[in-house]
Specification:
The protein is an alpha/beta fold and about 280 residues long. It has one domain: Divalent-metal-dependent TIM barrel enzymes (TIM Barrel, Alpha-Beta Barrel), CATH 3.20.20. About 40% of the residues lie in helices and about 15% in strands. Helix 1 links the parallel strand 1 and strand 2. Helix 3 packs parallel to helix 4 and helix 4 packs across helix 5. The longest helix has 21 residues. The protein starts with a strand and ends with a helix.
Amino acid sequence: MVKLGCHVSISKSVDLAFDRAKDKGCAVFQVFVKNPRGWAAKILSEEEISRFKNNQSTKKIYPNFAHISYLPNLASQNSEMYKKSIDCFSIEIERCKILEIPYFVVHGGSYKGGTLEQGLNTYVQSILKGIETSEGKVTILIENSSGGKNSLTGSFENIGKIMTEINDSHAVQVCFDTCHGFGSGYDLRDSKSVHKTKEIIEDNIGLTSIALIHANDSLGELNSFRDRHEHIGLGYIGEEGFRTLINDKDFNQIPWILETPIDERRNDLGNLAYLRSLIK
């Protein structure tokens, strides 16, 4: 059975994520470890940390994933922005260590104002600093982006270059976002296109490098460079695409996390149920 889950809130206390995930029927979940819309980080109390760890051992929802907040740009060519990004990155990795969250998803970032080569170098140095901070306790997952101008991880070729430079398959792996991949030109609409995309992934990073799938349909068309998530089966990837993906022997061994909308059409429970209905 595929391990399915979604992103859940840490509002009021980080340990409440477990009950929220359980209420949604999650086997795994993803959280932010601080306010995702600001640089500041409220101190985690010893009580919160203790409750989170206790829930890890008793609630049987595992593994847990954390996601970097919205503001950091680990490929930034602006010195002030880069320092703030690295400081924030380090704080969030430290929180993952404290909470014993084993995986931390990070964006690729933008190299605006520089060249692709400069962007790649900056990003690699950022990830190496993150590895040093993690002390082997947190695996960093590089998330593919929806592409576009100055986007670093819109192609698996670039992600492959980053991973080759880092050369540590335990410390750094990949989060494959289906919406982002589709937006950046990797077709996922049927078995033939999924097979072709898998070949590209295997050639550049290796399928075994993928530790997490962000399951999101796309409001944007193929190669649109749009990062706009849609309910599973209702976007341009569509039902056939997700039926193929979730029944694929390489992808259904990996945890899946939903980052789909919540509106009058569906909520997280609805999207999880829809995905389960596609499993053969």
